[in-house]
Amino acid sequence: MENKLLSTKQAAIYLGVSEAFLERDRWAGARIPFVRIGSRAVRYEVSALEAYVKANIRKSTSDQGICKKEGR
């Protein structure tokens, strides 16, 4: 199965966040994996976005997930 690549704008729409959110994430260490094509183009794999969403599912606002175990 082919994994589609999304632009920053498309990925932002997919996640329901702003493009600036994704740009800041890349600058700060990229919690959301991305692909760099050439020197400027940035793309996101749909499967990576889905994995990011699944990894960040919480049951309550006090649920800090894995980060809590890591002491962050």
How would you summarize what this structure contains?
The chain has helices spanning 8-15, 19-28, 46-55, 65-69, and strands spanning 5-6, 35-37, 41-45. With 72 residues, the chain is α+β, with helices and mostly antiparallel strands. The protein has a three-stranded antiparallel sheet with strand order 1-3-2.
Describe what this molecule looks like in 3D.
- The protein has one domain (5-56).
- The chain is of the alpha+beta class.
- A three-stranded antiparallel beta sheet has the order 1-3-2.
- The radius of gyration is 14 Å and the shape is globular.
- It contains four helices and three strands.
- It is 46% helix and 14% strand.
- Residues 68-72 have low confidence and may be disordered.
Keywords:
72 residues, alpha+beta, three-stranded antiparallel beta sheet, 3 strands, globular, disordered C terminus
Write the layout of secondary structure elements.
Layout: E1 5-6, H1 8-15, H2 19-28, E2 35-37, E3 41-45, H3 46-55, H4 65-69
Antiparallel strand pairs: 1-3, 2-3
| Major beta sheet, strand line-up | 1-3-2
User: Quick one: overall form?
Assistant: globular
User: How large is the share of residues in beta strands?
Assistant: 5-15%
Strands, count: 3
Put simply, the count of helices is: 4
Cα distance, first to last residue? 37 Å
What structural category do the secondary elements indicate? alpha+beta
Helix-strand pattern? EHHEEHH
Overall radius of gyration: 14 Å
Helix content: 40-55%
What is the arithmetic mean of pLDDT?
87
Unreliable stretches covering 5 or more consecutive residues: 68-72
**Assembly type of the shown chains?**
single chain
Provide the number of structural domains. Answer: 1
Largest sheet: 3 strands, antiparallel
